[in-house]
Amino acid sequence: METTDVKLQLIESYFRQFPGEAANLLNNFSVEEVLYYLNTQPLDLAGELLLRLRSDTAVEVLEAMGNDLFSKLFPTIDIYLATIMISRLKKGSIKQKLNLLPEKIRKEITELMSYPPNSAGFVMDSRIITFHPSDTVQEVLKKLRSLTDQRLVNIYIVDDLGKLLGRSSLEIVAISEPHETLKNLMEPTFSIHVMSPMEEAVDLQKQNKMLNLPVVDLDNRLLGLIRNDALVKAARQDATEDIQALFGAGREERALSKVSFAIRKRLPWLEINLATAFLAASVVGLFEETIARITVLAVFLPVVAGQSGNTGSQALAVTMRGLALREIRIGQWLKVARKEVAVGFFNGIAVSLTTAIIVYFWADSLGLAAVIGVSMVFSMVIAGFSGAVIPILLKSIGQDPAQSSSIILTTVTDIVGFMSFLGLATILGSYLGVT
């Protein structure tokens, strides 16, 4: 066996057994040397070493990495960790690197990088410099002198996996002994989850008088920093956009916008609402003879439609929150739908029993009580399913769930509620015993 092969095997063995120590050593090597070692290692080990590099070193390595190595190495890395790394590149590099990846991975990373407009992640700066507890003051200051960002006020310390451990102020580092490690200078720090609302970030910064607020994921990995000036600007702009969208007004409309602009943004949704209202009315029209013969049915129509509408709205709210916080993904639609169908079924049974008792004493008809009970269970199950599926479906085709879901859901719940109640009443009309 040649000497070179023996050296490579020894290096691989060391890298595999002590990836954290190996990454710390590589942090002090040139970019060319780091790329050389990554090229000589198996893809799984090279990926682990890349993830353990200090954030600034990893960015430099990725920027200089050849297309061939990148396209082979990156698909082996956990998709979420890969997203964190790519988000720290320059904008031009992000696009170029993403184009090297398979379409499925590229779409997923792009989706993960697009945080909702009202979230902490939307306003954070992902291009950050982090250090490890074992880094000395001398090493930190040497690195800081090479930086051009004059807004740096704190040193953030992470472990080998990028999890936030604490911070140290720049003043403390500057006056400490050169060989002192950050581990001894570190203090706890507040942080915020990447999907938390901006209002929470504003409160946290105000309460703790922080110029920069660390942003972390569910595993406490440091993703970026929210700078005070960026947060204030974004919070002002986004304060009312979601409310406007929910009621069919454009996100871009302002209180003093031109009349023509407001009409252009609002009128299409009003027309769509009108169309869906006539669609629901046409369903009722199909059973006009039944309603004329059994007039008490008209009394209970709002009850069925209202309960199914509330059920759908609950499922819609939970699902949209899950999408916004990335608790669920589009591919999990069936799991979410099953859960909401089960909730709708059991809630439907409980509500229908109460409704059936009231209807029985109101109309003195056991048949009508049974009809409204059965129709309510059916309509609430469909409403739960629709509330879960509609926003996921709209998200999958690139539409804004906040702006479209409620209109579609209202139409579905009204039609299903009217159809089930009036349809059963028509079929079992002779057994209802009411007029």
Strands ordered across the widest β-sheet: 1-2-3
- The tally of strands reads 6
Write down the Rg. Answer: 30 Å
SSE order, as H and E? HHHHHHHHHHEHEEHEHEEHHHHHHHH
Low-confidence stretches: none
CATH superfamily of the largest domain: SLC41 divalent cation transporters, integral membrane domain
Distance between the termini: 98 Å
Biggest sheet statistics: 3 strands, mixed
Helix/strand-derived class?
Answer: mainly alpha
Report the top-level CATH class of the largest domain.
Answer: Mainly Alpha
Content of β-strand: 5-15%
Helix content: 55-70%
Give the helix tally: 21
Characterize the overall form: elongated
Descriptive overview:
The chain has helices spanning about 5-15, 20-25, 30-40, 45-50, 55-65, 65-75, 80-85, 90-100, 105-115, 120-125, 135-145, 170-175, 200-210, 230-240, 240-245, 260-285, 290-295, 295-325, 335-365, 365-395, 400-425, and strands at about 130, 155-160, 165-170, 190-195, 210-215, 220-225. It starts with a helix and ends in an 8-residue tail after the last helix. β2 (about 155-160) and β3 (about 165-170) form a beta hairpin. With about 425 residues, the chain is mostly helical. The protein folds into 3 domains: about 5-115, MgtE N-terminal fold, CATH 1.25.60; about 130-240, Roll (CBS-domain); about 260-430, Orthogonal Bundle (Tetracycline Repressor, domain 2), CATH 1.10.357.
